[in-house]
Amino acid sequence: MTDFDFDLFVIGGGSGGVRAARFAAQRGARVALAESGRMGGTCVNVGCIPKKLYSYGAHYAEAFEEARGYGWQLPGAPRLDWDALKARRAQEISRLNGIYESLMTGAGVRRLQGHGRLLDAHTVDVTAPDGGRSRHRARHILLATGGTPVRPELPGHELIVTSDDMFDLPRFPRHLVVVGGGYIGCEMASIFHGLGAQVTLLYRGEQILRGFDDEVRDFTAAELRKAGIDLRVRTEVTRIEAAPDGTRRLTLNDGGVLQADVVLYAVGRRPNVAGLGLEAVGVRMTASGAIAVDEHFATAVPGLYALGDVRGGLELTPVALAEAMALVDHLFGPLPGQARRTMDYEHIPTAVFTHPPIGTVGLTEAQARARVGTIRVYRSDFRPLKHTLSGRDERCLVKLIVDDASDRVLGLHMVGADAGEIVQGFAVALKCGATKAQFDATLGIHPTSAEEFVTLRDVTRT
Ligand code: NDP
User: Does 269 contact ligand 1 (Cβ within 6 A)?
Assistant: First the structure.
């Protein structure tokens, strides 16, 4: 086809879009990418990266406290300079924005600054920030526009902030109320508590972190409370008002009232599909408002693809990256000498950067019970060596779920320092189908918390 300007046109410069654009260009495809904001999407700008930087920042508060138990004499109470932290974060994110830009241009991708909208299955209209328009024809178009935080509809909804606003709050909140007991709510509660805010975390259901192993949920909730977070379950906000002193007044379903400087809603994210022109080309949507795709990320419109958060799957950066690589192999073939990649949604490890963090891979105990006959559950709940002197009473939970018939480890869960780092390694073992006997045959690294995973002996339930 000679009337196409590009082989692939990507709308959205987040994790999935940039990866697809770069890898397609490496295979010799003519590629363009349109992004109206800064490069890197949610992950780089208002998600994983700034969140983790602030989490590191918050951990210092614990370290200062623990240091005294190790004999350190600190001159006084350390004080957070919120403006300095924001400025340092902004500087680092700008550096990453630049790296993303140069990775793309270095790979030969044509970068267009502006909002992309479909005119038909092979034509994208791009509106630049100055209002200038351009039109581009492409053999394949990829929609990788990500997601955006859901906003509540209750009275006073205009007084809330979302995770997009948290990194640049003009003033550090003395009292923060967080609504939502998922990834973002729990992480933000821990981080801002660590940085020095008084935090109230409200969750509408029985226990936070629905979808995680029940024991992990209970253990984490107990640790958050022990750390000083006011976690309230079965609690909903019915209205929010602005008080004359600039604070927010929240009325709760139990009749209670809360005062806060900032009210963060972290009640899920929805796909970014507005203004893409999807209706005009007949794209099919899922019930939750995401773009429906097949196993090759093809939408109902030939030539049009979607991946990452906009297709409403697991909203995780490594998933979007892997989907992008599978799509590029599908459209343009693998690199010489490499196997064609396909997407495998089994054994996706994940971490929640609460304090202490959660790391998990594979099935929860409840999922395993529902899927296989008999299971064995091994667990250990202990005080990490570090805290024997630090004076803190934080504990660590490690848990293995094993299929009794095959001896395969079906699920591995941890709540404790560095859980994300530790579970990443064990995720390889689960992907390889490791058995409990192979865990037992592996020697521990002593003394670590991770060695508990290879020394678990007592079956707690069958
Ligand atoms: P989640 O889906 O994880 O959690 C949403 C929370 O809000 C749940 O507790 C949910 O309750 C609650 N909720 C939903 N609607 C309402 C409502 N109307 N009123 C009160 N509470 C409500 O979404 P998040 O926003 O926390 O995060 C979005 C996604 O981003 C995550 O699912 C995850 O995939 C990704 N993410 C990943 C991170 C990581 O890898 N570390 C970090 C941050 C985000 P209920 O359980 O009852 O439905």
Answer: yes
pLDDT tens for each residue of the chain, 462 residues long:
458 999 999 999 999 999 999 999 999 999 999 999 999 999 999 999 999 999 999 999 999 999 999 999 998 889 999 999 999 999 999 999 999 999 999 999 999 999 999 999 999 999 999 999 999 999 999 999 999 999 999 999 999 999 999 999 999 999 999 999 999 999 999 999 999 999 999 999 999 999 999 999 999 999 999 999 999 999 999 999 999 999 999 999 999 999 999 999 999 999 999 999 999 899 999 999 999 999 999 999 999 999 999 999 999 999 999 999 999 999 999 999 999 999 999 999 999 999 999 999 999 999 999 999 899 999 999 999 999 999 999 999 999 999 999 999 999 999 999 999 999 999 999 999 999 999 999 999 999 999 999 999 878 756
Q: Is 185 near ligand 1, meaning CB less than 6 Å away?
A: yes
Ligand 1 center to 285 CA (angstroms): 21
Q: How remote is the CA of residue 356 from the centroid of ligand 1, in Å?
A: 19
Q: What architecture is the 6-56+80-148+270-332 domain classified under in CATH?
A: 3-Layer(bba) Sandwich (3.50)
Yes or no: domain 350-461 corresponds to CATH 3.40.50.300 = no
Active site residue 446: yes
The closest-lying atom of ligand 1 relative to the alpha carbon of residue 48 is: 42
CATH number of the 157-267 domain: 3.50.50.60
CB distance 336 to 343 below 8 Å: no
CA of 46 to the centre of ligand 1 (A): 15
Would you list the domain boundaries of the chain? 6-56+80-148+270-332, 157-267, 350-461
- Claim: this prediction has a pTM higher than 0.90: yes
Between CA 103 and CA 358, with CA 320 as vertex, the angle to 5 degrees is: 110
Domains 157-267 and 350-461 share a fold: no
CB atoms within 10 A of CB 282: 12
With a 6 A CB cut-off, is 184 part of the ligand 1 pocket? yes
